[in-house]
Design goal:
Length: 292
């Protein structure tokens, strides 16, 4: 069919104009010609692209290397919202020549999977370090500053000095170029590796603490504010390793929570209601004075 007839076929029958169609990003980058156009191409592709942006990958590490940085460390913490025990942080410099499959946010992974990945990270990473800040320092500072201090200590424990930091949502007081990433443990493989090491180290400590304080169920709740943990706090009170600056722990410290008091013995002739001398002993009813 001649080109003129093909164009005339697709013109509007009243206006005679060609329909305006969206540009398709195909191989030739041209326009889609034809009056019949199914769903817009952009709707499904944009959704797919948004989902891809949430995947944990190495794009931030690649961009940093393109700008000249080579020793890129990812940092993350674990246990920031817990009521019990220290907050952990880890720093990891992954080997770009040794890919570790399955790295992702530690909260999305099962405990056995985290253990397997933690072993691979410790085996293949160029350097890694784990640090913790105990509950007493969390109460003295606050959990935000304690998390930053734990990350600083984890960075100092790296066998290889990093020249660039990818940090999960925080900025550290270090003289090293760094980039904070919101929800970075689900976006950067370096931060994901750090989150796995910090989570595994803290979970192992909670298993040990559960032997010393079995009433709180730390092996199951990891010190977080579950219903069972809050009930144990009300029944038994907090342990020395709880974070007393956190509101649920402070509430459990109230002396009146589940407290009982035995009746106190009163001197003879004292009323239990007011503690004042009784009328019979004072002689107020008869007007007689008490004997000298």
């Amino acid at each position: 069919m001649p080109a003129g007839l093909a164009a005339k076929k697709h013109r509007h029958k009243h206006t005679g104009r060609m329909p305006v169609l969206p540009k398709h990003p195909g191989k030739n980058g041209g326009y889609l010609h034809g009056a019949r156009f199914r769903e817009p191409w952009c709707r499904g592709d944009v959704l797919k692209f948004a989902a891809m942006r949430r995947l944990c990958c190495s794009r931030f590490e690649r961009v940093a290397r393109q700008h000249g940085w080579q020793r890129i460390a990812g940092l993350d913490e674990a246990g920031r919202g817990s009521l019990f025990g220290p907050v952990f942080a880890a720093a990891v410099i992954l080997n770009p020549r040794r890919r570790i499959h399955g790295l992702d946010d530690s909260k999305k992974l099962s405990a056995p999977r985290r253990e397997v990945l933690a072993e691979r990270i410790r085996e293949h990473a160029l350097a890694w370090g784990v640090a913790q800040v105990d509950a007493s320092r969390i109460d003295a500072w606050n959990i935000y500053q304690a998390s930053r201090q734990a990350m600083n200590e984890a960075t100092a424990r790296l066998a290889v000095q990093p020249d660039f930091l990818l940090v999960d949502a925080l900025h550290l007081d270090l003289l090293i170029e760094q980039k904070p990433l919101i929800k970075g443990d689900g976006r950067s493989i370096s931060i994901a590796a750090a989150s796995i090491l910090a989570k595994v180290a803290r979970d192992n400590l909670m298993q040990e603490c559960d032997l010393a304080y079995p009433q709180y169920g730390l092996a199951a709740n990891k010190g977080y504010a579950t219903a069972q943990h809050l009930l144990a706090l009300r029944n038994y009170g907090p342990s020395p390793l709880h974070r007393f600056s956190f509101a649920p722990v402070r509430a459990a410290c109230c002396w009146a929570t589940g407290a009982t008091q035995e009746p106190l013995p009163l001197p003879a002739g004292m009323t239990a209601a007011s503690g004042a001398p009784s009328a019979a002993s004072s002689g107020a009813s008869t007007g007689a004075l008490p004997p000298a």
